[in-house]
Amino acid sequence: MSKIQSSQEKLAQRINKEYMRIAEKLGLGYDYMGLEQIGPFSGGSFGRLNHKFTSRYAPDIFTDTNIITFTSHGLAKAMVSESLKCFCAVYVEKPAPCTIYVKQIRDGFRKKPIWVPFHRSVKASEVYKNRMSWNGLLEALNNDDALAGYMNKMETETNIHGIDQHLSVGRGKSFPVCVNDADNNHGTRCMIVPVGDRTFVASQHVNDNPRNIEPALQAVKRIAEIIHQYNYQQFTTGEVISDYAKDLMELMGKKRKTKPTSAASKPQAVASGKKCPQCGYINLEKNKFCGECGASLKLKKGVCPKCGTENPPENKFCGECGTPLSEFQQEIPKSRQTPPPPPPPTKPSSPGVNVSDPLEQLITGIKGGADVQWTIRYKTTKQEYEGKLWNIAHKGYFVRNDNLMAVAEKINQQNHYLLFPNIRYVKTPNDKTLTGGFMNFAMTFNNKAPEPFRKKNVQVLLLPRDENPAEASVRMLASTDKEMTPDRFSVMLDVLVNNPGGVKEFYLWGIQD
User: Fold this and answer.
1) Which residues fall within 8 angstroms of residue 244, CB to CB, at 6 or more apart?
2) Verdict on whether the full-model pTM lies above 0.70
3) Which of 259, 262, 397, 478 would you label with 219, given CA atoms 20 to 30 Å apart?
4) Could you report the per-residue pLDDT of 220-251, keeping only the tens digit for each?
5) Is residue 124 helix, strand or coil?
C-alpha cells in the first residue's frame, strides 16, 4: 500500500468511527460505501468517502465526504490527508412548488438563515423583502425553530494548511474553504429542488471535524419531514442552482445502479410490463414504484427519466440534462417532421478542414460576412430565450482545445463560474437549424479585467471539430464582438483561468449530441 493510500485509509477510519457514533446517537442505520479516488494534482490527490444513513421512518440520506492528501509543508516524507467538505442529500417522495435555497439575510437587527425561492437575476435579500413567488412551504421552513438551529450549527468556513488555491504544496501556504460565500448571491449551504413527482434536498458544510455532519443530517432530515407535511401535489421541475447538487444527483444515480444485489433477494422481473426509467427492470403494470431500485414509475410522455424535465415531442434528448428520451417520448407527427435539406455544393474551405462535411458546406455557404447573425436558443430557468451573435465563421478561426480545458477545470473551483448543458438549438444566418456539440462562452467582466474587456459582456459560439489537430480543434463561429479573433479570445481565456477576480459572471452553455 502506498503512503497516500495508507494516509487516506487512516483518515477514512477516523471519519467512519465518528459517523457511526453519530448515526447511533440519531437512531439511524449506517452503511459505508467505500473510498473513491477523484483525481491527482501535482502535490497529492483528491478522494471521496460515500455513506448512507438509513431509517425505517424517513428516506435514506446519502453523504459524500471529500478529502485531500498532500505532502505536508513541502517535505517529501510526511503524507497528510485532511477532510475538506461534506455533502448530504436525500430524495423526498413528494413534489415541491419551486427551487428554494437558504441565505444569511438581515431581518431586524441581525442576520439569520432565511429560505427564499430561487430567482437568477434577483438578490436573495430582495426576494425576501418583496416576498417574491412566496408559498406555504417557505413559511413552514422559515418558521421551524428546530431547522433554524440545525442550520446555524452547520460549519461553513475553515482553512487547510500546506496548500493554496493553485494546488501548490508548501510550508506556510493556506487554502481557505468556504461553502457559503457572501459575495455569491446563489452560494448556499442547502437547497431544495423539485424534480417531477419528488424533491431533491442537498446540503454542504466544511468537514475539518467529522462531528460537523450531525447538524447537516438533522437539517436534511427535518426538511424532508416539512416537505412531507406540506403535501404539495403538483409535479414541478426546478433549476439546480449549484454544481455540488448536480454532482450529488449523478453520484446517487451511479451508486444506486451499481449496488450489488444477491440473487436470493433480487426481485424477479416479469415478461412484460412497465420498464423502470432508472434501472431498466420490468415491473407489473399495476406497480407505482420499481421493485428493483424503488424509482417512481409514474412517468409522463416526454418527461426526462433522470431529472423530471418536461420536453417537447421533437426532443430526442432532455433539454435540461441530456438524457436520451427515445424510450419515453411521444412519436412525432409526420406533419411536424421536416425532411433534411439537400446539401449545398461543395466549396473550398480552410486548410485542414474536411470540405465534404455537411456542416462545413453549410458554413462556407453563409453569405454576408460579419454583418449576418447566428441565433442561439437556450433555456435558463423555466423559460427559453434567443441570443444573437455576429458571424465570424467565414474567417476560419480556430482556438486551442487545451486552453478551453483549462477554463473547464476552473468551473468547479469558482462559485461564479457555471455550466449549463441546455442549448436547445443553433440557427445559422441562412436559417438552418443545427443541434449537437456547440459551446457558448458568456462572460461578464468587472473593472479589474484588462482592456478592452473591462465591464464588458462578451459571448463566443464555438464548435469542436474532430477533423482538426487536437491543439487547435475548436472552431469559432460567432460572437457579440465583431472584432473577435483567436488572439483576442485567448486573452479572455487567460483572464478566466488566471484572474477570476476580474470576472463578474461566466456561463458555459453546452448542447448534448
Assistant:
1) 87, 202, 204
2) no
3) 259
4) 999 999 999 998 888 888 988 888 888 888 88
5) helix
Residue with cell 481557505: 176
- Residues in contact with 267: Cβ distance below 8 Å, sequence separation at least 6, in sequence order: 281, 291, 292
Give CA–CA dist 304/220, Å, rounded. Answer: 25
- In terms of pLDDT, which residue wins out, 367 or 209? 209
CA distance 480 to 489: 12
Confidence band, pLDDT 50/70/90 cuts, at residue 333: very low
Q: What is the DSSP letter of 301?
A: T
Q: Domain-by-domain residue ranges, the chain?
A: 3-255, 358-510
189-220 burial by CB neighbour count: b if 16+ within 10 A, else e?
A: bbbbbbbbbbbbbbbbbbbbebebbbbbbbbb
Contact at 8 Å (CB) between 52 and 62? yes
- The C-alpha atoms of residue 281 and residue 267 are separated, in whole angstroms, by 9
Smallest Cα–Cα separation from 485: which of 498, 476, 494?
476
CA–CA separation, 360 and 475 (whole Å):
11
Q: Quote the radius of gyration of the chain (alpha carbons, Å).
A: 25
Lowest mean pLDDT among 202-216, 346-360, 366-380, 487-501: 346-360
| Residues 506, 361: Cα–Cα separation, whole Å | 32
- Contact between residue 493 and residue 406 where contact means Cβ atoms under 8 Å apart: yes
Residue tagged 448556499 (cell numbers) = 188
* β-pair partners for 433: 427
User: What H or E segment, with its residue span, contains residue 39?
Assistant: strand 29-41
Q: Which residues pair with 190 in a beta bridge?
A: 203
